[in-house]
Amino acid sequence: MLEIERLPADVQRPSYDRNKLKTRMVHIGFGAFHRAHQALASDKLAAQGSDWGYCEVNLNSGALIEALRQQDLLYTLTEMADDSLHTRVIGVITAALHGKGDGIEAVIEAMSQPDVAIVSMTVTEKGYCHLPASGNLNPDHPDIVHDLAQPQAPRSLPGLILAAIIRRRERGLAPFSVMSCDNMPENGHVTRNVIVQLAERHTSELADYIKAHLSFPSTMVDRIVPAMTDAAFATLAARLGSSDPVAVEAEPFFQWVIEDNFVSGRPAWENAGAELVSDVLPFEEMKLRMLNGSHSFLAYLGYLAGYEHISDCMADPHYRSAARALMMQDQAPTLRTQGVDLAAYADSLIARYENRAIKHRTYQIATDGTQKLPQRMLDSVRWHLQNGSGCDFLLLGVAGWMRYVSGVDEHGQPIEIRDPLKDELARIVASSEEGAPRVRALLGLKAVFGEDLLHHAGFVARVTELYQQLCAAGARATVHALTRAATNL
Asked: Could you tell me the pTM of the whole model?
């Protein structure tokens, strides 16, 4: 448990009176990224006199919430570079709830308090119960089916937020803004879609109320936050003289772009390094395609090659060159961003990937691929198909995902697939022959690939060719060959 009095003098403590904070935000998904990103920004504002505090909610795992409670709602964040580190105690949390332990009713009630102006979330793409290919609500999702039958005991994120909206309206309270901080293009639009479409299945009048009175600002978030390991916890405890099971580590880089569209006020996040803009989409696309797209590329092909961390991939000059080529040759032409030096942005990403102090595991990034591929790679693939241009690095990324979800690595060892569609993926793999039949079977997964890509002969042929090359020669040799051919490395 974190013991503030035992921490070294160079650890930054909250300089503000925590008793003056109000619970004005409820955040769903108390994961590592939120602890290292949005909570940090609000903690910096509290030091400037802001009274915007967080009620943190985890819907499933309760261990983290319980640990947070045991240490007075405090935890440490350490920013790590190759040659430096800095630790601060985050104190901006005012309450913490666990959906299963405290009950969903307690969570709905927390969102229904008069002071709450913003409900935000980091629940990963799969938490929205949407169809990634369209951005619409998935009415067949088991949690959505449950919530339509039992709206006062919701299981899904959309159902939970809708229950709070209904309760606040019944009490005559001001509406709140719903702010997604997950890596999806137009994440505010997706959030609005799923909540409004769920409301429409109750009454059109409820849906109209939401459209008229709530806002769903989009955001773009960027910071590399690796999952904590036992070794990382042990090293941190030895340095701090106190264990912290809620601790998180991150790179020094921080970016947060927010659509300035809030119906009941917001913190002055611009005073903590955020950018408030009228249109987030160009920033989202740049980050999702250049950073997240290259991350996924490195995750699948790096893992298959035996590279445990992204920094290990960067030590291979072919992988390093491939990542930059994917950014500049395949992703940059698809972007609508204006006034940004994309070459300098790509170079900055490569430099961040090289940070060996950040142990960002390829396996961690490879999770939930069915939710990530559409926005990280497939949207760009479609752009190239429409424009008649090549995008071999993107296609190799898609083939790499297919090889990865086949479930066996290049040494014959099983890969534990973590994905909301893992059962469907396992069924496809088990019922299809290796090679071209498997590629076509996976492309038939409409929730990921839509209905168009399977019928584009050139796309199918090239992905099949790259997939077969991965199976025959391995990931490292395939990346090396493509990189040599494309960049003369």
From this structure: 0.84
